[in-house]
Design a protein that fits this description.
alpha+beta, Helix Hairpins, Heat Shock Protein 90, 6-stranded antiparallel sheet, 54% helix
Length: 474
Amino acid sequence: MLAFLLIVGLSFYVMASYIGSMVSDSLFQQRIRSDRASLETLAVRIAPLLARSDAPALQSQLLAAGGEMGGRVLLLDQNGKVQLDSYGEMQGVRLEYPEIATILVRGQSADYGVHELEKGETLDTAHLLFARRTTGSWVGYCTAGVVYASDIIGVLLLVSPVQEIMQNLYQLQDQMILIFVLVAAAALLSSWIFSQVITRPIAGLNRGIQRMSKGDFSSRVRVRGSGEMKQLARAFNSMSEKLETLDQSRNQFVSNASHELKTPLATMKIMIESLIYQPDMDKDLRTEFMTDINNEIDRLSAIVSDLLTLVQMDSQNVKLSRENLSIAQLIKDNAHRLQPIAEQKGQKILLTLSDPCDIYADKSKLNQVIYNLMENAVKYTQNGGVIRVALQRQGRDARFTVSDNGPGIPKENLPHIFDRFYRVDKARSREKGGTGLGLSIVHQLVLLHGGAISVESEEGKGATFIVELPLHQG
């Protein structure tokens, strides 16, 4: 703010100097021209009289000229000493005014200056606006050289009052001070408005960034103003919201991963402690415990493997080994693999493959998508259920669906079905050996192939998973 006012003040000073010079020149120019013309005419007229030292004639000329020009006229010799004074008071006095030196030393023909009688202050007309205000009398000193035979033989000095002109300059000075005060007030007001409109939103945004840097991702800023500032505030809030969601997801993921890993470890610990503290345990029971421990290890290994897969996909280090293949053939192969499990539960797997849907894709990863969806349908459908798998071409895309007539998925669970470690029925899912990561991996693999996956379900009426993949990929 201080710098701003300093710039305004400096600009005003420069402007005032320029205007002051123009005004003072304008006010004094006519007066200077008039006095100088009269004085130079008088100098030409008295030059012969001064050359022959005709004092009475010179005195008569000075008295007449003083009355005509409305001032006091003095005649000085080549040394600056007063020879004649129209007031008859200063004969013999040596005067040392700049206007006299201009004639005698520099050889100029005429000069003009303004003087304050009481203080002896001298100013040129360009700086009169900034003259010190005083109650004294201001006079103008106009000088002209008396030339005879190409030599300066004397100087005429006209002393005339300029008080009225100075009063006008004082008034102008007062007006310019008032203007400066108004300009400064306007500058302060403008700065305050500017700070309210621009600086305050920036300060609020800065505080929000500082809170976010300390880990507070719930930080939001007020959206106000217009244009870029409004867009910036919205962008910050959007970024903050995404970071908060990401942080919550990360914390939830760590919590879920810890829980999933802890469960098999706790189960194994109990079983191993039983084996340690019961050395005479029945052989069949011991075998059953060892089998359960082995199953838990397999489950733990599956969770770790799935976690590593997800971490690899999150880091974007997964590279697809693409080749030409048929989606229909992959569906047939997986249906054949799952057929024994389905028969044990009295289930039927019905295939409707209307097109081979040849695609350039990663065979192992696409196979994992198809197998996981079909296996889930078999795993979570009751005995005697029906699993329908369909494949058809829709324009440039392949549409692959897996439907069952199982218990379905509650409506409130549908938005979270692809979240990591999310289970609709946690106890039932663990009993069936699920890690809670299968659908998350499927979702990521489909996205890697440029496709999309969704689910449609109604509780008690089964579920349908829909995968759409672009057939022409490069």
